[in-house]
Amino acid sequence: MPMTRTPNMVGAESQVRHSLPGQAHAATLGMWIFLVTETLFVGALFAAYLLVRTVHPQGFILGSRETDIVLGSINTAVLLTSSLAMALAVDRLRADMAGAAARWMVATALLGLVFLGIKGVEYLLDWQHGLVPGPHFRPGGDQAPGMELFFFLYFLMTGVHALHLFIGIALVAIFAVMLRHGRFGAGLSAPVENLGLYWHFVDVVWIFLFPLLYLVHRT
Amino acid sequence: MTAAPSYLSGIRRLRDWLLTRDHKRIALLYLVSITVFFFIGALAIALVRLELFTPQDDLLTAETYNKAFSVHGIIMVWFFLIPSIPATLGNFLIPLMIGARDLAFPRLNLLSWYIYTLGGAFTLYAVLAGGVDTGWTFYTPYSSFFSNTHVFAAAAGVFVVGFSSILTGLNIVVTVHTMRTRGMHWFRLPLFVWALYATSAILLLATPVLAMTLVLMAAERLFAVGIFDPVLGGDPLLFQHLFWFYSHPAVYIMILPAMGVASEVITCFSRNPIFGYRMMAYAILAIALISFMVWGHHMFVSGQSMYAGMVFSLLSFLVAIPSAVKVFNWTATLYRGEIHFDAPMIYALGFVGLFLIGGLTGLFLAALALDVHLTDTYFVVSHFHYIMVGGSVMAYIGGIHFWWPKMTGRHYPEFWARFAAILMFFGFNLTFFPQYILGYLGMPRRVHEYAPEFSVLNVLSSAGASLLAVAYVLPLFYLAWSLRKGRHASANPWRATGLEWRTSSPPPPLNFGEQLPEVSEGPYAYDPDPKHGRR
Amino acid sequence: MKWWNWFPAEASDWAGSYDTLFFFMLALSGIVAVAVISTAIGFMFRYHHRRRVHRAGTASFQRILEYSWIGIPLLLFIVVFLWAANLYADLFFPPPGAMPVYITGKQWMWKIQHANGRREYDELHVPAGRPVVLVLTSEDVIHSFSLPALRIKHDVVPGRYTRIWFQADKPGSYHLFCAEYCGVGHASMTGRLWVLPPDRFAAWLGEGETSSLAREGEALFRQHGCSGCHGANASVRAPSLEGIFGKPVALSNGTTVIADERYIRDSILLPRKEVVGGYEPIMPSFRGQLGEDEIIKLIAYVKSLSEAPPP
User: Which chain A residues contact residue B173 at CB under 8 A?
Assistant: First the structure.
């Protein structure tokens, strides 16, 4: 391998690694590891939820009933569809159909935005119903502490989720544009595949959040 | 002397450092940053030990004292100990040791350093704006509702620097998996690499939990929602469980790399392969695994269920076994070796002795009944300082000395290095051994005034601290001196095995020449010659 | 034995057992440390690079060594673990008839209440030779009630009661410390433990306030309207509190709990949490209306409804 270097170019990936497949492999491994760390990050929240729910079962039931199950269900469908769109994008890219892949990625990002929009509407409705923890929290009575803790966890967990989704949307949009400009071909689909992994992870987290926040004891 | 290009040549502008992607330069960036933070943390504890020279509160107000020990803990844990070996020696050496030209993600590596600096900025802001007084453990509800200090800024600093750790860990794991050179099978890796690999696994799995715990605590503080406050329906013990779930593995983040350094140094200066290489590697993995299962041993008297306490106690004893194996194996490595007492070896042997004592006292704390009296006293303070300072810091400094010729191309002055090492060993014991006794006598932690009967031991401890201070400052001077005036180093001045020694000192920018080295035997192939003893 | 003067006072049998285990561990650790360090130093001297000694060959007994230095520590650790766990468990099972003392930690003092109502601050008087059970809680942050002479301590946590018991045997005056950092006054949150011979303790207990906690609790019971539902001629149907303390209660969700201090406290502050089977969840919460002191008195009153009348 020729040893060309310019004064400040030491250590760039292309000089460091032996091959492009090697880079792709490393990047994918890196993404999986990152997702493991994310699992532990939200895992702490799930642990907190578990404990607080054990201490305030009634409060959680009452709180969960105040969430909007219609909007939540629609959102779940939207996010699952967006994952489908992302998977199709990766599939098209592997088949060297960059244009189709870019279109599917745009669809993914748009569906993500729909999710965020619906979430925003939910938050607004929650605020109007006095469900935001703090001085304006309206529900009273015995179970108020449990309900307020429920909503604290609700806003924190969905908020962290929404933040991750927003980052995902931005990256998907950027990658879609780059794809249009020919930056990724069949042999270089790794970054897009890794982004797909991230997107699916965000989706999976929602699949856990939805029942815990919307479906508690809704009989 | 030599005109061959090294990674240090051609540095003219600040951007050659601040925009570098060379793992070796990034390692030096970290070296400078963590040294700065080390001395800030040391200044804080100097105030503490000065106050504790007398039983009365005659030097500092209680507020200032409480801020001093809190700042000491926060800075030393997150801005010195956790990054120390991984981000300096790990960054510098791992690619060299596995025969690669850099880490897997060089730009991510630089980003790690910037994130570290940002976290440091938040924390420094917290210190300069008036300090934080919650202790490094941030226990609620004190931290979320009662403290009037800059808790949020300090927590933000720790939150941010956590991501630096996570990215460093990610880089190391992917590098070791995907970039080993031809012939470098897993069981031919130096133990330093094993140690850093396991450390990185812990960094990746534990740090995110800390991040979320700090978010919850900060949210409680900012929005007065009581997830940890019982008045609002929450549980203070939830904080403790979440906090220690990270913080116990964190202490293994601090000790495993030091164990890696010890293995490299002891083998080299005994001219002997490590005794029981496979066991040593398995022990590293066992320590990392079990470290996640013992966090409740910090909570034996906090209201945790007695039965949970028993599980945690048993597991805490179990985690001591692989650590003990390592101590025995290091000792056995000396057997039939050719022992040289260069400064790195003095540090490494000091490490083994002090880690042994610290580890044995850990057993006292793992024993449920014994912990009841000893917890929250100076016994615990002494235990963890024996491990983290007598252990990790000595090994870190020893490693800096060992690889100094490689990193800088210069030798440090051997006399002063040995002097500092020996002074450090004695100063350390004088500082911390009396604290075991203070703890058994019942002196609680985190107090600025104490009962007069604890005087003598406190005076001894503060006296020892002044010796330690000298021992830590000395290397600053002679290492800096060596950069200009030190004897030039050859590629392998210690005649050590390891791929890092097969390239020049300092290494060229892409670590090796045209051809990457290939490996055909295990590490530590120090060759015995029965007729003449070892070379 | 003269050299015990160097060590903190040992004021109870449990402290004596503690010290036995402690010094056993110290001896064991000392032996290990000396053995390993002297071996290492021995090797360092014998195999110094300037010495001409026989160095060839590797240790042939490597496997045996490795297994034994895993196996032997493991055995020793299990022995110590069991010994210590057993001693620890002792602390959480007070004998029946143990004298309760209620301890509330707050920034930055200890409030101590005896069952007969006698109150003290930063000082704990106990009789020698009688088991005492401490019921601990905090009003604000986490503190830790530490009695080095008895070798015990326990965190006091807001929102819950923790219990630990002891029997002090050696009359004297001993340290009381706060061992969990709690803010500016942490270091000054100290006090004394007074172990008095039983007759002097009885005399001490008789001085000062004599209205018992239970009697004050009864007054609160009426003042706050509890008797309106839980009293004998109440118009509202509520569970009777006679004889319930320490016994199982069947809840409306099918589970059973023991009516202890925690249950009473939660019933007062979070009445919907554990509703007695067969009753409506209509009890209001008294959160914000009662301080920790008053809750302790109400608990003492409810306890007294389960005690046999004095002969």
Answer: 29, 33
Cβ-defined contact of B300 to C37 (cutoff 8 Å) = no
- Pairing state between β C191-196 and C123-127: parallel
Query: Is residue B184 within 8 Å of residue B99, measured between CB atoms?
Result: yes
Which CATH number fits the domain that encloses residue C161? 2.60.40.420
Residue A45 is assigned to a structural domain of this protein: yes
pLDDT tens for residues B291-313?
999 999 999 999 999 999 999 99
Contact check, Cβ <8 Å, A145/B23: no
Of the candidates B142, B145, B367, the beta carbon closest to that of C81 is on B367
Strand partners, C276: C251
pLDDT tens series, chain C, 311 aa: 333 345 788 999 999 999 999 999 999 999 999 999 999 999 999 999 888 888 776 666 678 888 999 999 999 999 999 999 999 999 999 999 899 999 999 988 999 999 888 889 999 999 999 999 999 999 999 999 999 999 999 999 998 999 999 999 999 999 999 999 999 999 999 999 999 999 999 999 887 655 678 888 989 998 888 888 888 777 778 888 888 888 888 888 788 888 888 899 988 988 877 888 888 888 888 888 888 888 999 998 898 888 766 55
Whether residue C103 sits in one domain with residue C201: yes
pLDDT of res. C4: 37
Give the closest residue to B319 by CA, choosing from B286, B351, B295: B286
Cβ-based contacts of A37 with chain B (< 8 Å): 166, 170, 204-205, 207-208
Concatenated DSSP letters for chain C? -GGGGGS----BHHHHHHHHHHHHHHHHHHHHHHHHHHHHHHHHHHTBTTS-----S--TTHHHHHHHHHHHHHHHHHHHHHHHHHHHHHTT-PPTTPEEEEEEEETTEEEEEETTS-EEESEEEEETTSEEEEEEEESSS-EEEEEGGGTEEEEE-BTS-EEEEEEB-S-EEEEEEE-S--STTGGG--EEEEEE-HHHHHHHHHSS--S-HHHHHHHHHHHTTTHHHHSTT-SS-----TT-TTSEEEBTTS-EEE--HHHHHHHHH-TTTSPBTTS-S-PPP-TTTS-HHHHHHHHHHHHHTTSPPP-
- State the total domains in chain C: 3
Structural domain ending residue among the three candidates C151, C172, C206? C206
Q: Look up the CATH number of the domain holding residue A61.
A: 1.20.120.80
Residues 26-65 of C with CB under 8 A from B: 29, 32-33, 36-37, 39-40, 43-44, 47-49, 52-59, 62, 65
CB contact (8 A) between residue B141 and residue C185: no
Closest approach of chain A CAs to the CA of C284, in angstroms?
A: 8
Enclosing domain of residue C130 = 99-206
In a domain, C47, yes or no: no
Which residues of chain B lie closer than 8 angstroms to A38, CB-CB? 208
End-to-end CA distance of chain B: 28
- Inform me whether the C-beta atom of residue B433 falls under 8 Å from chain C C-beta atoms: no
Provide the chain C residues 165-204 that lie in CB contact (below 8 A) with chain B: 175, 177-188, 190
What is the second-level CATH architecture of the domain B31-502? Up-down Bundle (1.20)
Range of the domain at A105: 21-214
Q: Provide, as residue numbers in chain C, all residues whose Cβ is less than 8 Å from the Cβ of B433.
A: none
Residue finishing a domain among C206, C234, C265: C206
